[in-house]
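Entry for iron/sulfur cluster complex. Fields follow.
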Amino acid sequence: MTELEIVEACRNLGRPGFRGKQIYAWVQQKAVGGWAEMRNLSNEDQRLFHEAFIWQPLRLIKAQTSLDGTRKYLFQLADGERIECVLMAYDRLTARDRRTVCLSTQVGCPIGCVFCATGQEGFKRNLSVGEIVAQVLEITRLMRLEDRDFKATNVVFMGMGEPLLNYDAVLAAIRILNSRDGQDIGRRRMTVSTSGIAPRIVDLARDDDQVGLAVSLHVADNATRDRLVPVNRRYPLETLLEACREYTRRTNRRITFEVALIAGESSARAARQMAELLRGQLAHVNLIPVNPAPGLDLRRPDQREISAFAGVLSAAGIPVSLREEKGTDIDAACGQLRRRWEEA
Ligand code: SAH
Ligand code: SF4
């Protein structure tokens, strides 16, 4: 719920509106674990609100910490479904004091990309606004047991699911996470990642011109992309890139194009096609050697091929980076922890 919705709900319960503001701050800013911790509420009010609201839609099933500090969480929802989130480690030594939370937006995913463990498991349902926001809050609460000052600084919608197919809930979650009296995470520190739902990319430019956009491009020819990212049959590259150009016209913002590098697919020729496709688009390409998942027969290219791919793009004037990999020892790639847990 937004602050305003809680204020109204309090009034409907016959309580003053400012109680709602207090509750919002406890839930969002302080990320407390229950009504009993709200010290400025009377016991009677705590009981009343306990009856009236659903507190926490997530239950922690499993947490893993990687050697590099990345943490992965498996949460269970009220209906028994399970989702994952990841907290990317921060390194105080590099002075980049970032704590990025990677959120899920759906249970499963209807897109079915061939390299993605989530996509291979099919689609169950959308997450609610509460289930999306609660991922940040629950991770914050858990982290504060170790580090009282913990605060998420960045959010990426790169967990399970296709955020632009749960558009309204994702936008509402962004607004709540952005709210001053809540987590107060800047919209420019949040990134929505999409497999390429072209009409929704244009909608996003209209509805929120601050939040970042990442497009999971992977390859630049339709035949291959049809096979790897099946939504390409619905929104082929021409349509997708037209939506991206429109997005940039309206927002002036650079789009990050994500490219999973796969042995046999990510050739120098594929890189040249990509440079051609992205010509004139304000772009940044993020290369990610594919994370081989159990049951998915995909390998990453060798170092020489990876450098060759990057070299072609930079020679064409496209800024390119190789994503620093985190958490491979804890199955931190999309959908992998849930799969392993359920097989065990
Ligand atoms: N559905 C959205 C956001 C979630 S997936 C999207 O597809 O963009 C987040 C990112 O993880 C996407 O770029 C996706 O292509 C990538 N990804 C999924 N499985 C992967 C794997 N096995 N190795 C590397 N990247 C993967
Ligand atoms: Fe869905 Fe993204 Fe996985 Fe594709 S990569 S199946 S769009 S979660």
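NOTE: The pocket of S-adenosyl-L-homocysteine (ligand 1) is lined by residues 109, 113, 115-116, 158, 162, 193-195, 216, 258, 260, 288, 290-291, 293, 333-334 (CB under 6 Å).
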